[in-house]
Amino acid sequence: MSWAGLLRRAPVRRAATATATATATSTATATYRRAGTRLRPTIGIARAATDGSRLSSRARWQGSSGFRRRLWRQTEFGRRVEEVQLLWFLSPFFRYGVLLSGAGAVGFVVTHIDQVPISGRWRFNAISDQAELEMSTRAYQTVLRQFRHSLVPGSHPVAQTVQRVMRRLIPASGLQHQKWEVHVVNAPDERNAFVLPGGKVFVFTGILPICQNDDGLATVLGHEIAHNVAHHAAERLTQSYWAYALLYSFTFFLGAPDVLSRLVVDYAFTRPGSRKQEAEANADGVMRRTTSVYY
User: Which of 19, 52, 109, 169 is most buried (most C-beta within 10 Å)?
Assistant: First the structure.
């Protein structure tokens, strides 16, 4: 074909290409208006289709809503969400159950908000004082059985030292009405001491060299008594309920391994709460130690 013939056919080819591009653009605009997808990537896909080029995975992701839906359904979270959505739309009983359960949960939380006596911090606490005491009684029996062969007699000088310190701390605690019992456990390698709700004191001999004297022991025991004054045990039990609920939610919706879910809940929820409780117990323990003339 001569150069003159090619020049005569060029406007026709340009006009055909322009017509195809305009048609693809209008189709993409209509798709954008119906489905709410992004206009610019859709137009780019339409132009690429008219040129006969191969679509990239990024272009498919940006422009194909069907592709995104298929990818969403392949994930564990997407499948679980679609199952819940299906139940929500098909089962009135499920909808009413979810709404009633949500309203009941909100009401339960609102009616179980109380204030920490030590710091005035507001918190959610679902464990009553009586329930906390009953659980502490069972824990006390368990600890006694565990260390029954290692208990130091009350006439021993170490036990008398601990009892002397406690006699000065109890009046400052405001918990004189409780039935206090002091136990010293002969465990040189165990550097620990704790006070169970209800006035059950356990001191391990391994912590005595660290305390050095009555003042140091009073600091440790005053800190442990402050946990009981603030009912931190009940608060930790309540937090464990929330933690287990979140743990099962992670496992159900995300299909996350059990160990990973526990780590997420521990670092995100449990540990921040324990730091607040320890700070409150430190401040109140020092105050009660000072009130008991340990300064």
Answer: 169
Q: Say if residues 28 and 22 touch (Cβ distance below 8 Å).
A: no
Provide the annotated active-site residues.
Answer: 224
pLDDT in tens, 161-187: 999 999 999 988 888 889 999 999 999
**At 70, is the pLDDT very low, low, confident or very high (cuts 50, 70, 90)?**
low
What pLDDT does 172 receive?
Answer: 85
* Residue type at 102 in one-letter notation: G
- pLDDT higher than 90, residue 159: yes
DSSP of the chain: --HHHHHHHHHHHHHHHHHHHHHHHHHHHHHHHHH---HHHHHHHHHHHHHTPPPPHHHHHHH-HHHHHHHHHHSHHHHHHHHHHHHHHH-HHHHHHHHHHHHHHHHHHHHTEEE-TTT--EEE----HHHHHHHHHHHHHHHHHHTTTTBPPTTSHHHHHHHHHHHHHHHHHT-TTS--EEEEE--TT---EEEETTTEEEEEGGGHHHH-SHHHHHHHHHHHHHHHHTTHHHHHHHHHHHHHHHHHHHHHHH---HHHHHHHHIIIIIHHHHHHHHHHHHHHHHHHHHHTT--
Distance CA(255)–CA(80), nearest Å, equals: 9
Q: Are 221 and 199 in contact (CB under 8 A)?
A: no
Contacts of 270 (CB under 8 A, 6+ apart): 239, 240, 243
Burial annotation 180-211 (CB, 10 A radius, 16+ → b, else e): bebbbbebeebeebbbbbbbbbbbbbbbbeeb
Whole-angstrom distance, CA of residue 231 vs CA of residue 234: 6
Task: Indicate whether 58 pLDDT > 60.
Answer: no
Cα dihedral 242→247→250→255 (10° resolution)? -160
